[in-house]
């Protein structure tokens, strides 16, 4: 009897065990993925393009230009705490138009504009790089860029906002780092390229409208690793908008915004082509201490990498450290050596690129930011 | 227990295969019905939970609003001012695919850019997906549907589907992608989903400036007070668990009712097993006597019989589990249909086989087999070593026990009635009492059978002569066999009577109520399919235009919305219905009405409310506890309840408020339905045609006459009870098997007696008639006994179970139909069950039969 019961229990156990194994789809979570029709055109067809020099009008042109496909407000700065500890920060808001024409709708959610913000802090002493991003639609006041009543570019609670006739304030709070900075320009906006028309290749239209505020004196507070620092320093601001600015041959670019201790700023860069050459159309700019500018042709400067850094995150190999020679019309070229403040300043969420603070030595000293794109994937078609 | 005895068992089962088969079928059916209902209930609930989680995802908190609305700007405040990054706006509503038989889809409007933390299927981590998701965002009227539905309806990516939405009669949506579920369960949950960007959802089915809710993932320990501080009036923060709990609570009474009914089938099965085991014991008395005289102990005999029951019980249980899974597939559709009609949308395609339910079924099946076998097994041990026991001795003993059984039965019934007197919300307790009454009634069967047969003898004598007399006496002579067969049949037929009377009483009550409340001649509302009625917002202008139609004398409008009752966070939102005039034909009936002079309309206009009976039941509203607090668009507001009216619209109940009062507290200009009274002499069809061809064109609304609306309601009512009817049939099937097995036993037992009858010159035809008279008498007895027992069951269902489960009171409606039908079932089942035994008897060879002894 007992034996029989045991066998019975065993039998039931085996049967139920089998069933349990069969019914493994018993989790509470509903999982699925999406198969989508590849309908979205990424060409710049239908958008305004940068062909003619632009007729700038400030403050209106600080705001958004939704008829262009891509636009960004790019703040990078080198700051120091009162104890001398050095920090870099990047706060960028990108705008992307999904379609050329603004839709008409009763819905406050309807838009063709998407805003994306990248926020990073480089903690030099701690050898740490913090990054976070925000994305939202340019609708229902969730994200946007405007100059009415004041200059304001924002995504969620991250924003750049005009707080007086000249001052702007950046406030951004990420999960474990934040900044609250006030910025004040010492010079008027410097137009890049030909009256702000910055060519990216020889073909007309492969260009952007582009101006820089190459030195914004900056002060405020920064919280990193749970510690809040009072910081000050200088920030470089770029505002650029375009549609299909890059040629089909573009692999990526290297860009340098350098603030020299003698009061000058220098922008140089190069567009790398898929075949390994550089596009000769890209120009640089020297901003004198008094705010006057000198356009630099591609032939006027050379950028030579002195080392490489391999990303531990994705294996991309970036140049790291540069020798820069610039003919600024003087007898001797300006020779600068750039060294990243820390090696790993790679943004790895979404689009992957390296954007980091560098130290300048050589004929002049100072700090700057370098931006290296297209080392993991080609950038053509993305901007 | 040694192997020699086990072999004996094996031989016995082999020799009496047919009988063993009946045992197995009895237990298998009993287990199968229970398991099927359990599986169906569980699967429907699970499907519902999954479809909820498919739209809530990993949400920890939700901000919900009255009338289903939350201002969009609140989302901006949460994100831009409070910096709540893990927040997502949602517009959720039902739409119907007009080209696909008005298939109801759940429209989920989301912001793909905010979705990632919430629902897995719109992940934007994959950069390759981003441009395609941007299509959804930037191109109006684009949406995703499930692969399952697309394949079933042969919809391709790139196709357009036509929808009817709460705000638009018809709108085209371009299918730009498919949702592909990761597993079967998800597939079911996603099947009826239509996902669009939130802007598209708002444009095709929403209101500018409003969304349905905001989903939040708040970190542990987040101070919800920060959010509460900025909530505008008419919104509240809750958790998905609370709302899901509240919704699944809605169906719990419904499920318990089904489970209890399925247990009835098993109860009938237990009688059957008892019968079979007793028979096998009696039949082997000589063998048992020999075994005992050879030195087999009582314990061993006990084990022998019990083991037989265990083996057959196990085989029956395993078969029952398999059959239960098969039946469950069918039952789940019926259960889901009822849930759809009564509670909420749920789509269940297949059952989820839960090992827990199977274990429960196995335990119940085997326990039932053992319990039913214990008494006969014990009886077997009483056999003295010398095999002198005769059949007559057993019958004598049964007759001696009869008074005891009858007294016991009366105690059980009294006990059951006593338990029913306990004022409790516990439905399981109430059902236990019902079972006591039923088992007690079943135990009364032997006594009743004796009395009835005594009365039948002269009648049978008159009709069939000596054969009839013999048959009636034979039934009593084999009381230990026949009583149990009759008891099983009586139980089954009583269930048929009880449930039928309950359903027809309910139906009558609902029909009466419809007659009273649906006073208007024409009703304008969106087309509905049970609870799938779209929560449509009808523009006031439609009512004004309808008033202009020639022949229309009066227009009454109703607004029905769901609002939040802060005092009852565990219950679903309150159905608030706000008419602007009275459309009832006769005065509404009230459970209690404390309005001055009974004039509840005056009270409503003065800002008080009345609530329906189920509402009062669920929220325990009494003349003493007579207030209800609702969250209005101007903050919380407490209303005095002046009366409780009878209403059968929903078992969740409703609050009725005057429409003017409603508009004061809720910023909502819309209507849900419009009722029209015609002028005397106006032609209904002319007005309907005019409404359909002019006023309502392009609105997606339907004009229905009073009669067709009433018919529609009753149609849904009938559909709701289809599962109950199916259960009723299964109980009958079990009873049929029971009576068949009892008759087989009788016939086998009496082989010698029949041999003598044949030897004495009775023809095979006479023997057949004899059998049929006997079974016919048993069936008739069961049919007659089922009247009072079924009526008692109906009364308990109506006056106790329904009131305690759903808060519905209804009048008892007795018709000859339910009883006649049940009586016919009893007699026919008995007669049909007699066919096989009769056939075997007529082939009986007298000599062999006599020798068999």
Low-confidence region ranges of chain A: 21-27
SS content category of chain A: mainly beta
Beta-strand percent range of chain B: 5-15%
| Share of residues in helices of chain B | 55-70%
Average pLDDT of chain A works out at: 89
Structural class of chain B: alpha+beta
Largest sheet features of chain B: 10 strands, mixed
Tags for this entry?
heterodimer; A: 383 residues; mainly beta; 13-stranded antiparallel beta sheet; B: 853 residues; alpha+beta; 10-stranded mixed beta sheet; 6-stranded mixed barrel; elongated
Short précis:
With 383 residues, chain A is mainly beta. Chain A contains 1 helix and 26 strands. Chain B is elongated and about 95 Å long.
Question: Could you characterize what this model shows?
Answer:
The complex is a heterodimer of chains A (383) and B (853). By secondary structure, chain A is mainly beta. Chain A contains one helix and 26 strands. In chain A, the strands form three sheets. In chain A, strands 2, 3, 4, 5, 6, 7, 8, 9, 10, 11, 12, 13 and 14 form a 13-stranded antiparallel β-sheet that branches. The termini of chain A are far apart. Chain B is α+β, with helices and mostly antiparallel strands. Chain B is 60% helix and 14% strand. Chain B has 29 helices and 21 strands. In chain B, the strands form three sheets. In chain B, strands 12, 13, 14, 15, 16, 17, 18, 19, 20 and 21 form a ten-stranded mixed β-sheet that branches. Chain B has a six-stranded mixed beta barrel with strand order 3-4-8-5-7-6, surrounded by five helices. Chain B has a two-stranded antiparallel ribbon with strand order 2-9. In chain B, α1 (3-15) packs across α12, α2 (17-56) packs across α7 (184-190) and α14 (391-421) runs antiparallel to α15. The two termini of chain B are 29 Å apart. Classes of the chains: A mainly beta (383), B alpha+beta (853). The interface between A and B is large, with 53 and 76 residues. β1 of chain A pairs antiparallel with β7 (171-181) of chain B, so a sheet runs across the interface.
